[in-house]
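This follows on from our talk about sequence and fold. I would like you to pick a protein and set down its sequence and fold. Go ahead and set the record down below:
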Amino acid sequence: MSVIIEKLREVLFSVLPITLMVLLLHFTLTPIEPTMLARFLAGAALMIVGLTVFLFGVDVGITPIGNEMGASIVKTGNIKIVVIAGLLLGFFISIAEPDLHILAGQVDSVTAGLISKGSIVAVVSIGIAALLAVGLVRIVFNFPLYKLLTILYGVIFLLAVFTSPEFMAIAFDASGATTGALTVPFVLALAVGVTKLKKDSRASENDSFGLVAIISAGAIITVMLMSILKKTDKITGTLENAAVEATSVLGPFVQKLPVIAFEVLVALLPILILFLIFQKVSFKLAKASVRRILFGVLFTFVGLVLFLLGVNAGFMEVGSAVGYKLALSYGKPLVIATGFILGMVTILAEPAVYVLTHQIEDVTSGYVKRKWVLVTLAFGVALAVALSMVRILVPAVQLWHYLLPGYALAIAMTYVVPDLFVGIAFDSGGVASGPMTATFILAFTQGVAEATEGANVLVDGFGVIAMVAMAPLIALQVLGFVFKVKSKKGGLESNE
């Protein structure tokens, strides 16, 4: 019970700032239709309950499964098994990630089916599968993370030359969406399970992070390849019902519940089936441990359903409405400032962020305090959202104007920042753009784009997730450099 209470405290601290921010905007700048506001508050309540239950379920169920699978794979001592397991786990985890389905559905809707949901999900999942296998092999053979990231982003920069602006936005957004509330805990636990078998504790600490970063690159590469091979003509998109008044409070919740429940069920079933297979063949865990894990998976299911229901039936439409009204009625400085504040408070409600920050503190034995990681992440994401507002409001500014120098700087910093912080930073890039951030901020940005003359909702709206995913790469590596300068801890040296 004490664990659940602690989780509840964390969640309340996370969700309340966003709720208060929206209420402040409602009573000052952007009045919200009463029915929509009621749904927003109901969604906030569902998010609080759901996120609490979800985080408890992850601790009890998902994380132990990932740890056991990682250890079991490496114990075989067969690199072929490591590769095959990586391919299978990567594909099934990705294809079942609810965040990816949300993004793919939004792309399908905005492009009127020109870019289908099924094609996005399949292509991204193939990229995740391939790079998860590569990431596991990297851990086994101690291949430096910064060298692998240099190679991967070198390939991405090359493909970017031949990729359309629309697909570039979707590619980087997909990398953030596929590393959601379900994938991140599992992949992090998988990495920890693999590294635990290493005799070198320093290498184990460094290699615990970076796997999320590697698989994120896989999503970018495969979507870019899709763009090049598909050779689709220039596409545009529109946001439907940006400021439509709602008529029912409970209607959207009732309508979305079965859809979300089914998506989450599909998300969890592959992991559950794989666990049962591994338990039969390899794990041989005690019945009590199996029951505890199954209990955790059930809690994960219930929590994620409630959380996503609150987000989709309450938060997304408010984000779009606020963005639309702000851009339509007020000047550019206020829109940019609001984007900055919303980015800062929204990241605090990201469930995967809490999973990652706790793991960072655990792996580093408390040396890297989670509060410093949270503060750095919040500022980085806030700046990213503000810059995204600038990109919408100033047509001359394009997405690649941010991404090219931003990722070049991030890669360059990997050569002077401690290995541990390189992995943390790139993992955080995927974690920051999870269900909360990707939905609320995406909706807000699309609302602004719809109300701004000359803006393309598809290009300008979807690219915000790419910006949110990039910001932590730079922000946390700066933090790592500061720690490097101030610290005398032996395990924190740079790549020399």
Summary: The chain has 19 helices and no strands. Residues 287-329 form the longest helix (43 residues).
